[in-house]
Amino acid sequence: MRTSLSGLVAGLIVLSNFSGAAASLHHSDSFERRAHHASSISKRAPDWPVHYWETKIRGVSLAGWLTLEPWITPSIFTSQENSNIVDEYTLAQYGNRDTVHKALVNHWSSFITKDDFQKIKDAGLNHVKIPIGYWAWDVSQGEPYHQGQLFYLDQAVGWARDLGLKVMITLQGLPGSQNGFDGSGQKGTVNWHENKQNVDRSSNIVKVLASWYSAQTDVVVAIESIASPAGWTGDNFMQVLRQYYLDSYGNIRYPYATASQGAIVQVIADAGMSLSSWRGFAPPASFDGVMIDTHYYSIWCPDCPSRTFDQHIAAVCQQNATLADSELWTVVGEWTLSTTDCANLQFAALGGSTFDGSAAGSSKHGDCSLMTGDGSKFSDDFKKFMRMFFEAQTSTFEANSVGWIYNTWKTESAAESSYSAGLAGGWIPSDVTQRVYPNICSGTPFVNATAPVVNVTAPSTNLTTPVVNVTSPSANLTTPVVNNATTLTRCGRVVPQDAKGVTINMRIEGKTRTVYEGSLFTTVHNFTLTTPNGVFNDLHCDGTNSGYKLPGAPYTTSISAIDDASCDAKFDWTGYLLEGIDGPSTYSMVYKSIGPADQNGQSWSAYISDVLVGDPCSSPVKEGDEVIVFVTDGITYNPYYSILKLEGGTTGTVGQPISLKITDRKSSSPAGGAIVTELDDATISGTAGSDGLVSLTFNKAGTYNVKAEKGGSVRSNRLTIVVTAAP
Question: What are the structural domain ranges in the chain?
Answer without folding.
Answer: 12-455, 499-631, 644-724
